[in-house]
Structure formats: C-alpha cells, structure tokens
Design brief:
A hairpin with a 5-residue loop joins strand 17 and strand 18. The protein has 29 helices and 28 strands. Strands 14, 15, 16, 19, 20, 21, 22, 23, 24, 25 and 28 form an 11-stranded antiparallel sheet that branches. With about 1050 residues, the protein is of the alpha+beta class. The two termini are about 55 Å apart.
Amino acid sequence: MNIPRAYLPPWPFKNMTIFRLMTWASHSAGNGHVTESALTSLARDVVCMPDFRADDLVGFDAHRENQRLDKSEDDPGLKDTPFSNSDKWNETGIDIQIPTGVPQSLPKTFTVPGLHFRSLVEVIKSAFSETTARHFHLTPFRRIHQSHTTAGDETRIFDEMYTSDTWINAHNNLQKQPAEPDCKLERVIAGLMFWSDSTHLTTFGTEKVWPLYLYFGNLSKYLRSKPEFGGCHHVAYIPSIPDRIGEFIASFTGTASRKATLLTHCRRELMHAVWSNLLDDKFLEAYKHGIVLLCPDGIWRRVYPRIFTYSADYPEKVLLAAIRDKGGCPCPRCLVQMSKTDRMGFARDLQSRISGARTYLWDKITTARNLIYNRGYAVASRAVENILQPWSLVPTLNAFAEKLGPLGLDPYAMLVVDLLHEFELGVWKAIFTHIIRVLYAAVPGGGAVTTFNARFRQIPTFGRDTIRRFSNNASEMKRLAARDFEDLLQNMIPVVDGLLPEPHNAQVLRLLFRLAEWHALAKLRIHTEDTLQHLEKTTTTMGREIRAFRDSTRESFTTKELPGEVASRVRRKQKKSEAQTAQNTIITGATTDSNTPTAATGNSTVTPAAQPITQRHKVLNLHTYKFHALGDYARTIRTVGTSDSYSTQTGELAHRTVKRYYQRTNKNNAIRQIAKQERRATRLRRAKEAAQLSERPPNRHSHHPEVSKDDSNITGVELHHYMSSSRDCKQHIMVFPNHPHLNDPAKKDHLLSRLLGHDLDEADDTIYSDAQRNAVRVIDDKIFSVKLLRINYTTYDMRRDQDVINPRTHPDVMMISPETGPTAHPFWYARVLGIFHANVLHTGPESRNRSVQHMEFLWVRWFGIEPNYQWGFRVARLPKIGFVPETDPDAFGFLDPSLVLRACHLAPMFAAGRTSNLLQTTAPTAARPLSETDDWMNYYVMMFVDRDMFMRYRGGGIGHVMHNRQQPPDLDQVEESDDIDMAVFGDEEPAVNTDDLADPDSDDDSVGNPEDSELETDDESGDSDSESDGDGDSVDDYGFSGL
C-alpha cells in the first residue's frame, strides 16, 4: 500500500516529537489511561524545562530509579531534610483477645496482620518542617465583622477551625497549665483532624483499603482541601478481619449465632486496638508535655497536639464510639432513644442533646468484660445485655477514652456531623425516594414518574459543573453520588410542581423549599450569629414539615417499594442466605456432596418453587440517627467551625490518591505497595517544594517577581469582567438588528446614555434628540461579536469566583434592580442574545472624551417579575419570572456588561406550559434556541443553585458589597401540634443582598429502613465539559433578522 509522503508521520502533527509523545500516550502510558491534562503537564513541566536533557535518559529504567529512591531513606544524612525518613511507614500485626465462653479460661489471641502506620508524633514533626507549614495559624482568634452600613455593628464570624470556640478554649487552658521546667517557649496547639473510611479499590472485585487521614486544622480549609497542596497526611491503612478468623472461632464455639456476635465483637476490638497502637506512649507524652519544634518563621515553640474532630460515616462512628449499630440509643453524641429520634427540632429534643450528652461509662464496660472474659458469658448474653443495653454500649474499651480521656478529650464530641452521609445520602435521599413512591401511588401506571423524569432532562445546566445534565431517569437513582442528590434537591421544585393533587402539591413544594433552605445554610462556608440563628429556626421548621409530609402521605396514599428497592431486598436476602449456609458449613464441618439426597425422594434434587415477588408497603421512616443528627449542626458549627471544614467529602476526595497509587502496583500485597507509593510521592513533593522555596536567580532581588504579570490576563480576578477583543466576527450596524424595537436610535440611545454617564433608570426616562444621537459615531459602522463573557465577582465568604456567559448554553444573567420600595424585586433578569464590542467616537458639546472609545454591550431579552405572586422565605416560594411580551417596547434592549452581577440559573415552570404569545413567530429567531418555536410561560429563579446565590437572596453575605434592604425573615418556632400553613407568615419580601459518591450497586436506604447499612461513596465528583473561548466562530446563519 503506497501512502503519499505528505501523510506519513509526523502527519497530522507538526513534528516527530509531538507524534511520538501522542503515540506513547495512546498505546503505552498506563494502558492508555493518561489524561490530556497529564500529557500536557508532562510536555510543559518536564520536557520543555531548560534543565531537561534527553541525553540524561539514556539507559533510564524507572524500576531502578524507584529502588534508588526507596534505599535513600536509610541515608543517615537525611535528618532535617525533605527526604527525612523519620515519619516512614511501619508494618505490624494487631493482637485481639477473643473470649472462649469457658469460665476462668484465658481468651484466645488472634493476630490480624497488615497494619501499616506512621508515628503520629513524627508526622507532626514532618508537617511543621514542610513548606506548607508557612501557612499554619498557631494562635487562635475570634473573627469579627464590623458592618459599614449599620453604624458599625459587630458580629462574630464562624469559619475556620482556628477561629472556633473549641480551639480558643483549648488554647486558653493550655496557657493556664504549669509550664515545663526551665522552658519559656511559646506554647501552641497542633489541631488534629482525622478522617477514615473504607473504600473499594476496583469497580469489580473485593480489593479494599481502609485509610486513616490526618489534616491539620492550623491550615486554612481553603488550602488543606486541595489535594495538590499536600495537606493530607496518610497515617495508617487499617486492616480488615481476615476470613480465616471464622475457622479460628469455630474451633472453640459451636453455634452460628455465637460466632456472628463474636465476629462483630472482634471488629470493634480491632478498631480500638489499632488506635491503641497509634496513641502510643510517645504521643501521650507529646499530648501532656508538648514537642519542641522549629517553626517556619524561625522561632522555636512547644507544640501540643490536640484532637478536635474525627470525620466518618455512621457505621464507623459506631465503631469509634464503641456503641451498638442502630441500637436503642443510636446517637454517638447523646443518649436519645430510637423511638424519639423523629422529634428532631422540638425544643425538648434540642435541650436533651446537651443534658443527655454521652459520658464514658467505664465501670459498666469493665463489668461486662469481666463477665465475658473471666466468667464465660457470651457477648450477647442476657447478663451482659442488662448492663450495657440501656445505653447502647458494647463490651469494648474505647481507646480514646482510655488514653486521652484523663487528658481532657471527649471521645464522643469529636465525632462531628457528616452532611454528606447524614443529609445528602441520608435524609434527603430517603425523602426523594418517598416522593417517587407517592407519585406512583397518586397516578397509577407511572405516568407522573415518566413526566418527572422528562422534566429533569430539560433542566438547564449551570456553571462549569455546578448543575450538570440529568441524562438518565432521575427516579431510578442509578449511579448517583452525593453531589447528584444535591443537584436533585436544588432543581426539584419546578420538576415536581403540578404532578400531585392539592393540597399535597403545595405541601411538597413547601417541604422542598425548607429542605433546600436548610441544606444551603448547613453548607455555608462562613457563618455569622445571624445565619446560625436562621439555621436553628429553619431546623425546627424543616422538622415540622418533614413530619407533616410523613403523616399526610401515610394517610392519603398507599405507598409501596420501588422496583429498585424490591430488587435490592431480593439481593440482600439471597446474600444473607448464602452467608448463613457458609457459616453452618464451617461450624458443623458438613459438606454437600452431589450424591447426598436433598429431598425425601431418592437422590433427586428438589428445588422449592420460587415465591412471587411482591412490593411491600413502605412509609417514610424518621426513626433514624440520620434524621436526629440534623439537630446538631448549628451547635457543632458554633463549637468547631463550618461543616465544610470537617466534611467527609474531604476524605472521599483523598481516596482518589489511594486509588491512583493502587493502579501503580502489581496487585500483589497491594497495601504494602500503596504505602511505598505514598512515601515516594510525599518525599518528592517535599523536595520539589523546598527547591522552589530556595531557588532565587542571582540577578533578581527578593522583592522582584520571577515572572511579570500580564495585565491582559483574561482570568484576572481583579477585573469585573472580561470580553475578548477579537474582530473575527463582525456585523454591520445598519443591518443589526431588523426589529421595530431595536432600531438604530435604540442602539445610539444605549451608547449615548453611557457616554453621558447616565444611570440605568435615568437613561430609561431620558429622550434624546437627533442631534445628540448624531454625535455618536460607530467607527466603520461595524460591531464585533464574541462567544463568551466572563464575570468575576466576590462571594459571600470573601473569595473571588467567575461565571461564564455563553448565549448558546448559559445565557441568563442578573443585575441589581434600580427600583426601590417595599414591593420592589431586588434584581433584574435578562437572557443574553449576543455579546458585542465596538469602537465609538463621541463628538459635540456634551462629549466628555473626544478620543475613540472601546465599548462593550450585551444584546438581551428582558424578563419581568410575575405580577401578584408572593415569593420568599416566609411563604417558602422561589421567585417566578417570565419574558416581557413582544408588544412591550422594553422586551429587548442592550445592557452594559459592567452592570451584570452574576449568571443566574433559571428553570422552566413546567406546570405553566409553553406559549407563543410572548413572541409571536414560529420562524427561527435569535431570541430562542434554533430548535424551539415558542417560550416557556414562566421560569423559577433557582436561588439555591449555590451558596453564594442563596446569600444574595437571603442577605448578610460578608463578602457582598451592598447589604440587604430588609432583615432575614423571623420564622418563629411553632409548636408541633399547631396546624399551620406557612403562607400565613404573610407576603413580605425576603431579605435581599444586592450585590457561589455513590456505590452504584448499593442497597442502602438507611433513613427509610433503620435495618439497612450506611451508604458509602467513593467518588464525589464528576467530569463536565468546560467552556472555551471561540471568538472566531461566525454568527449563525439567521443573523439577527429573525427578530
């Protein structure tokens, strides 16, 4: 086959270097798993560096170089260098004592192999020697905000761990205790925050790892949450109980039930034996007397480790607290009874969390252990149960209470709330599931559910990945992670509106609003006393709404299991049956032979007839720990900071690193190899950071930047917005646009008003003369269109963020309304039809600048506020808007990009349907997507789309320039017995600020069924398509003449 020379390699690339790199990535690198960004980084950060030499790679062997790196740990000269091996990995076995059940008989010792761990003290020392320690906060403080609009009123801010009351109190107590002999060093705290969670390493198979992560609360949450920053320290990989323990137990016990309880007991013993190993004498000495360390600022200090939080899902909290899983008192922090967990939000319930807080009952536990280990009682015997069951305790000594309790640690208070598992994958998932059940019951045949799924698929996306496309049937909940359930909650109101008969429709909409409101408040990255009071009141209101929803649906509908729930129940039953059969086989020693008769008739095998699978009656179950835990959020935020600081999502993201290490192993003794991979990566990262810190060219002073910042950087956060100056796509002003309400004077009026410095409301009321209009000249009569507009804004938590406006995909924007008055809406809304810039010359006596000026403007279609519609927090309704009718002269217009506040997320009000009356044409038009011939009658403004958007409508955002016109609504606590409609709170507008993992095969529904297990998510995030600037694209074929 003769190939033309022009099509031989490197075609279609520029040269052979790129051709070989692309070929290697496609066929060799990690079985083709190298990503585009990783390949780009390889070329940019390695190959293109000035010190890279291809000759140095002659004879290169990666395995040999890794061995060289591993052996270098033993170099005696590594002390106090980034390559120090003081915090290296250790491997040991953990001995657990298994009771025999025989009086006065010594317990059997079983060794669980494979605990990989690092010394906590050495990890602390290494962390303080890293370059990241330059960002440590060593002295806690209270952050206060002083308002510039309310006579300097001050309010407390709750955000970081080192600004929390817990840290401040610990610091004060530390300063009060006697100093170490002959030591005058400053005493500071190393705030330890632990995460642990078991995760699968493969999609298929049973390979798992149980990592324990350590983060330092001294580091800002905005830094430590970044995986590339190095804030995550792997301190242990906890082993699991090996399967052979079943045979070991069977050797001295004779019943399957006794074996099952012993296995559960062994898992608890293992967890606390691991922690007893980690909390060694060296750590206890440091806890009492501190560690003298040289801090990055060159000052020696005595550093005292303190454990502040431990983030884990509920099954792991149960292990750590040494209590029963879903026992009579299921909460690891208080002694609430399971029968009263549905009373979340009651005043008495909130008080009982404090008065009934858990304390370590050492005498009860040791008495029970004496019965088990010395007197031969079974772990689940009645005598043991009588001692422990009233408090849902188990006969396991709590390692934290035993070792650190005398030093002031509360082993129960450190188990902080978990928004991801308790609400997003817990309470909200259960309510979402029950709403689907209600839709099936209300409309037999599944018609309402079909409409439900179709509506979700029409929800527009928002942001880079804030709201992603709902491509699958939402009701089936297949392969949904926590962030997917968050998206479902934020977009549920327009989808479910109108699918149920009244009064259930109004009740569900009100419930969904309160759930979204609570979720937004609980997930805020920065709180004030005002927002915490709002959270407390919303917690009460939400609890009342959820109970009302449970009661009304139980009385009005016969709700049954969903098809997915039936399939999950069958799988659980089958798995349980197989496990029971295996246990009986091990204990009795019996085997099943093919010649063994399985029925009374000869040797033939008789299979029992399959029983028909029926859907069981199912109601919303609120007697769960997860529902009860929602009442702890406001108090937890006050004591240890905002929920994002200790969210289990941080640990879930850290799992990605462990899984990446696993892919580099040969799968033989994978955990040991993962530990080795972690050591290599950590040492190389430390060396790179230290080198970057020490490098300084001899011809550059310390105050000179290495690279000058380009003032034209399109992502510069100091700019309000950025629009490309490309002239590739031009439009003659005389043919744009062909519409009676957007004629040439309209364009001139917009530009003229801006040139004269008129405000938006002033410009609308001003009539300009022909002479004034003629003084405005558009150079060459050309305007230029571009694809994207980037809006930079300050968030409520004083960060900078960016929205990207694209007329094709994300066209909707919001701006501060110039209207005033008690009924005025705080914002105006518009749909961007085009993004333009032009060179303009203003002449005449009113000209303030006679030079050619570059002006940017947006072509928009305006939305109007729905008249006679009450919205806001008091009535629990989203804002509702609609397009201004074509007959209105202000239906279309131009907008200064500098007035755009943010992009906004608008979802169709599906219940109102579509209409062509607002724009009476079915021909293709730039006012609509090319595939549409009519408009939605109304849109909901999705004010819960992200935290910053929520705070703009609620008001009180610290980072927002202008403050709200009104104070947030005061939702008074109402007694549960009151039959109240939230609409009675009145029609006042809300406070407005005028200025952002799931196991696909999991059978979890633990909020709906307390007997089911906790859902664990391995991956919280997903990929999404990103916007790219394409200024060279031409205008669509229809131009603007469709108007």
